[in-house]
Structures are given as structure tokens and as C-alpha cells.
Amino acid sequence: GAVVSQHPSRVICKSGTSVKIECRSLDFQATTMFWYRQFPKKSLMLMATSNEGSKATYEQGVEKDKFLINHASLTLSTLTVTSAHPEDSSFYICSASLSSGGSNEQFFGPGTRLTVL
Amino acid sequence: AQSVTQPDIHITVSEGASLELRCNYSYGATPYLFWYVQSPGQGLQLLLKYFSGDTLVQGIKGFEAEFKRSQSSFNLRKPSVHWSDAAEYFCAGTYSGGYQKVTFGTGTKLQVIP
Description:
The complex is a heterodimer of chains A (117) and B (114).
Chain A: E1 4-7, E2 10-13, E3 19-25, E4 32-38, E5 44-51, E6 57-58, E7 67-73, E8 76-81, E9 90-97, E10 106-108, E11 112-116
Parallel strand pairs in A: 2-11
Antiparallel strand pairs in A: 1-3, 3-8, 4-5, 4-9, 5-6, 7-8, 9-10, 9-11
Chain B: E1 3-5, E2 10-14, E3 19-21, E4 24-26, E5 31-38, E6 44-50, E7 56-58, E8 64-68, E9 73-78, E10 87-95, E11 103-104, E12 108-113
Parallel strand pairs in B: 2-12
Antiparallel strand pairs in B: 1-4, 3-9, 5-6, 5-10, 7-8, 8-9, 10-11, 10-12
């Protein structure tokens, strides 16, 4: 149980285009989903927290207009990288929490490797 | 501010040897603590977690971790390492009670030599 999927697993795009990454909780409803970015050989950096039906909460230094997050349902959150630049190339990982409180355990997706040319 | 520290960036052990990965935390209250493993190009897999109760926690793949309040530590151990254990390991923590942001350590890369 508690499986989280991401699509696509890899994406290559041209500079200036937009890319959408989907995060789905397959067998549970996730009130809260998280988006992380991981640079090579680095830890995970939390970008934003999204709650179903409300605006995402962005971490300091993360551009909300560049990284659009939508949490339309209890099983789906999307991250759209707008006007992508080569410096946006990274490994993006989402996670989902079974509840907004309690154990705070997060279940992670397999990640999406974004390469911007 | 709360933090999780992994002092070792890279560790090399021989296959069959014991392993201990260090993790120190800085939280004002009793934290929830986790250990995750990440293989190259993959997402994170939860190895084990500590919420309360028994301070020695058993996880998957033969891993265990011990919560030591006096040392603010939550070290990960395995008695005999297998070549397939080579990966990146992350310690993470959050406050207990209600939802709080999870903070990750910088990770320790484990290399296993024959």
C-alpha cells in the first residue's frame, strides 16, 4: 500500500517551453503532497507543500510563478515548470502524506529527471 | 531551528562487514525520525521510522536504528552489509504532533567493496 507514482520519469525539453509533472497517490487519498528538488549529489530541497483544493505553500526562494503547483484532487498534484531554463534541469520528487497530521510519514514517488536544453 | 545532520558524506565498507551511519538531530521537542534509502536515479524508500516507544527500531532489509535522546542521535545500523546496500541514505526528521515540515539531512553515500 501507499504507492506514489510520477509521470513522466524522464523529460527533455527546449529552453522556454513548459513542462508538467504529475504526482499520483495510487491507493490512498493524500490531503497533502510535497514537491522536492534534488541537485546532483545533494539532499532534497522542499519546494512547496500543496493541500487539496487550496493554494500551495512555497518555500523561501522558490518562484511560485515559475513552479506552478495544482492539487486538484486527493490523488493528484501537478508541478508545471514554466519557461524552463537549463538551470531548471534537476531531479524532481513528489511525496504524499496519508493525513495532514499524525505520523507525518511521507511516501515518495520515483522522481522525474528534467533536462532543459 | 530544527535540523538533521549527517556528518559522513561518503562511507566505504567491505561486503559482510557491519555498518553504522550517523545522524544527529536538533529539535526542541521529541521528533519523529526517519531513514530513507535512494538508489541512483530512483525515488526514496523508507527503511524505518521512530515515533515513540521502544528506542531500538527495526526496519526493512535488515536495518535497525537506535534513538538516543542523550546524544541527540538516530544512527542506522546493519550487522552485515550486502553489495546491494550500496546507495545514498538520508536521515530525516519532523516535529511530533500535527503536521510539520520534514527536514532531510545531506545524505551519506555508501559504497560496498567485495
